[in-house]
Amino acid sequence: MSKVVKFGGSSVANSEQFKKVKQIILADPDRKYVVTSACGKSGQEDHKVTDLLYLCAAHITYDVSYESIFQSIVDKYMEIKRSLGLKIDLAGEFAKIRQNMAQNLNLDYLVSRGEYLTGLCLAEYLDADFRDASQVIRFHYDGSIDLDKSQELLKAQVDPGRRVVIPGFYGSLPNGVIKVMSRGGSDITGSIVANAFDVDVYENWTDVSGFYVADPRIIKDPVQIPRVTYSELRQMSYMGANVLHDDAVFPVRQKNIPINVRNTNHPENPGTMIMNDCSELDAQEPPHVITGITGKQDFTVITMVKSHVSAEAGFLRKVLAVFEKFQISIESVPVTVDTFSIVVQTKKIERYLYEIVAELQQDLHLDDIQVESQQAMLAVVGRVMRQMPGMSGKILSTLGDQQINIRTINQACDEQSIVIGVNNQDLVPAIKAIYQQFISEERVER
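Above: the chain sequence. Below: its structure as tokens.
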């Protein structure tokens, strides 16, 4: 058995966190492939190394001294070296970085140095091999990941008999120039490595013990989700839940490799397992009917009124053509006999709202058109809901009992998610009501 273990910035924020990481890795010999982020924040007054490097770049661009900022980065790594008794030549590494900054600033090179330096330190501390991500993670020139080439490079340069540390967040273009990923890129690197070596589990270590049924900022001490399907995860992520980026999921889902989200500060907690199919484990331990409750605010609903609109051929195509003209993606399309609504994110449409309304009215000869902003979309997700007759009615009844007005409702054919439109100010009360009815009470019964 083999595992990829990825550690986020909070997991390697200082020497004490490095010690926790080492204990976790040595506790399981299967944890062979280690991916690390750059050092994160040690406390409220501290700063992420990557943020400081971006700030240095901004100072250089505007010809402002960056010395005090850069020195704080140097001090952080020197303290880690001192505390852990490392022999790495950090002075030499920082001299190379300074030389690059002085001669010809390469932003991607500069901001990738946090992961690079953290990886060097962690490799020595673990007595593991180090492989620079620029040598094993490859991009296409259009910025997308070259998964096949990355797999080829990893297999050629990583000794399967040795533990290895690979920095996350960056790789290189075919010409060798360093390129960084979007924020959260270390998750993507871990997923690429897991795919390349066909590992059994991809462990993603962070500062939370997996995922929760609802946002802890809304629900105090929410229930932890023991396992979730990739499909459920996508739906929760799409509706605002802070989960893994799609690019970090695809390489492992392709190989049916489960992701285990764990907490570096509480390694005894099993975290959340993300899988293609949870049915076998569900049979042993039945899950809650609802896997997750999440939502986003600030949508606009445009409702078009026209007699017998549902029977008019080509009406949908004409509507979508108007939104396509302005490059606006559509979230939902609720339809009745005489009305046709379009739900879009307000920030995407507000600049063109009047032009779009005018074109819809002109092209479709509407009886009326209504625009409502300050709308929120609430998503209730759960793979078990399809087995529960009347689930939609129970959810709507729960919201009605709380005097929450329902503006739209959309349920997928797979019955795995129900998306409900409410006013912005009703989103939090709606999440609380559904959690209380379907999670808290079920928890008491169990």
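The mean pLDDT is 93.
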